[in-house]
Amino acid sequence: CTLQHGQQLRGGVEANLAALGFEVQLAQCESHLCCGSAGTYSVLQPELSKQLRDRKLSNLEPLRSEVIVSANIGCIQHLGSGTATPVRHWVEVLDEALA
Q1: Fewer CB under 10 Å: which end of the chain, C or N?
Q2: Residue 59: helix, strand or coil by DSSP?
Q3: Is the sign of the CA dihedral 29, 44, 69, 91 positive or negative?
């Protein structure tokens, strides 16, 4: 979210992971949407935040991914609270692959 919405750097992590041989899948619907964490938003607006999280996860669910990857710790924590699918930082995924 920080890269996409805050810094307007959409697609860089995905492109780099794909170039390194990772299978990268994006939600076919509403991939641009916020997960609902947005800094303090999940604390100040918990119900709306949960709705956004659940909407994001429902768009990711059809992919049946082994892991959901993000570049934002807030998104990782928030998405992880709503799914059994592991949610990890892209650096963790890369580090594990290189180990």
Answers
A1: C
A2: helix
A3: positive
